Amino acid sequence: MRYEDMMKQGKMIFGGLSAMSRELQKEDWQGVHYTILLDENTFQNCLPTLVSQVDSLQEAEFIEVPVGEECKSLEVAAQVWQTLLENGADRHSVIVNLGGGAVCDLGGFVAAGFKRGIRYINVPTTLLAMVDAAIGGKTAVDFGGVKNSIGHFYPSSMTVIEPVFLQTLPQEEVLNGMFEMVKTALVSDAALYNRLLTGVNIKSSDIKEIARIKSRVVKADPYDNSIRKILNFGHTFGHAIETYSQMPHGVAVGIGMSVAMYLSVKKLGLSGEVYHSYSKWLKERVTLPKYTLKNIEQMLPLMYQDKKNAAGDLRCVLLQEVGAAVIDVCVLDNEVRDAFLKLAQ
Ligand SMILES: NC(=O)c1ccc[n+]([C@@H]2O[C@H](COP(=O)([O-])OP(=O)(O)OC[C@H]3O[C@@H](n4cnc5c(N)ncnc54)[C@H](O)[C@@H]3O)[C@@H](O)[C@H]2O)c1
Ligand SMILES: [Zn+2]
C-alpha cells in the first residue's frame, strides 16, 4: 500500500483506552500477536492501566527499551527485532508503542523494517507525543551522531489519545509538550491559541483539538513538501538553540518561536502586541538565554544545517497573523542577529 493511502487509513482514536479496546475487537484485529514496546517509566506508570482497560492486550508480550533518546538507535532496534523473532512474531504481528516520542519513533522504525513492514499502534504517554510525535508517520533512529538520520515515512495504523497518562508525567515534560501545542495553535487557530495562553490548566479537549489539527495537516501533505511545513514554526531557531544551549526540544522551540515572531513583526506585519504577549507568557515559564553576537555567529551555521532550508538561503516559517503562517520566507543573517539580540531585552 502506498504511504499516502496508509496515512489516510491510519485511525486517530480520541475516546481513549475504552475506544481503543472496542476498536481492537473488530475483525481487522482478530488473532493478532501484540508486542508492547515501553520503557522503565511507562512500564511502571502506564502499562497497568493499558492492559487493564484493553482486553485484547492482556496476553501481549512486552519489550522494555532504554529511557528517552537512548532507545533511538540501530542497536536497540536490532535487539527489538531479535526479541520479536524469538517470540515468534510474524508479518501479522502488531507493535504497540506505549511511551513518549522516543518509544513511538523507535517502534515505528522497528515496525517499518520487520518482515517488510508490520502494523503498529501509537499510544503516546507524554504531552509532546500526544500532540506531535505520535502523529504523522515520521519514524526514525539517530545514527552517526545525527538525530533522526535513519528512518521512514511509515504511519501507525492507529493512534490513541488518552490524556489520563499525563497524571504521572513530570512537570518539565508537560512544559515541553505545551510549547508544541502553542506552536500548532499559533499557525492554525487564533481562538485556540488565545485559550492556551490564558488557560491555567491544559484541557483534554485542547490536547485532542491540537492532535486533530496535526492529523489533518499531515494527511494533506504527508511528505512535508508544502502545508506540513507550517508545523516547523520556531524550529529553525529552536533546533539551533536546542543544540547550542543544550536545552530540551520543546523549551528551545518555545524560545525559537519568540525569535520567529519578532521576525514576523518586522517582515510580515504581525502585530507587535502578539509578539509582546507571547514573550511575556514565555518569560513566565523559561529563563531566556542572553546571547551575544559571538554566540549568534556560532549558532547561524546550525540554522543553515536545518534540513528544512532550501540550498543557500535561510528560509523559515513566519506568521502574518495568528492562524496564518507563511512558509519558505527568506531571512537574512542580520535580521536573525537582530531578533536573537532582542531575546535578552
Ligand atoms: N516523529 C515525529 O514526528 C516527532 C515529532 C516530534 C518529536 N519527535 C521525537 O520525540 C522524542 C521526544 O519525545 P518526548 O518529548 O515525548 O520525550 P521521551 O519520549 O524521551 O519521554 C520523556 C520522558 O518521559 C517519560 N515518560 C513518558 N511517559 C510518561 C508518563 N506517562 N509518566 C511518567 N513518565 C513518562 C519517558 O520515560 C522519558 O523519561 C524525540 O526523540 C524527538 O525526536 C518525533
Ligand atoms: Zn518540535
Total of domains: 2
The CATH topology label of the largest domain is Dehydroquinate synthase-like, alpha domain
Q: Over the alpha carbons, how many angstroms does the gyration radius reach?
A: 20 Å
Second CATH tier, the architecture of the largest domain: Up-down Bundle
Overall 3D shape? globular
What is the count of DSSP helices, taking H or I runs of 4+ residues? Answer: 15
Describe this structure in words.
The structure is a single chain. The chain is of the alpha/beta class and 345 residues long. Helices cover 49% and strands 17% of the residues. The protein has a 6-stranded parallel beta sheet, with helices on both faces. Strands 6-7 form a two-stranded antiparallel sheet. A hairpin with a 2-residue loop joins strand 9 (314-321) and strand 10. The radius of gyration is 20 Å and the shape is globular. The termini are far apart. Zinc ion binds at residues 180, 235, 249, 253.
Q: What is the secondary structure topology, with strand pairs?
A:
Elements: H1 3-9, E1 11-13, H2 16-23, E2 34-39, H3 40-45, H4 47-53, E3 61-65, H5 74-86, E4 94-99, H6 101-113, E5 119-124, H7 127-133, E6 138-143, E7 146-153, E8 158-160, H8 171-186, H9 190-198, H10 204-220, H11 235-244, H12 249-268, H13 272-283, H14 293-305, E9 314-321, E10 324-331, H15 333-343
Parallel strand pairs: 1-8, 2-3, 2-4, 4-5, 5-8
Antiparallel strand pairs: 6-7, 9-10
Helix pairs in contact: 5-6, 6-7, 7-8, 7-10, 8-9, 8-12, 11-12, 11-14, 12-13, 12-15, 14-15
The structure holds nicotinamide-adenine-dinucleotide and zinc ion.
The site of zinc ion has 4 residues, from helix 12.
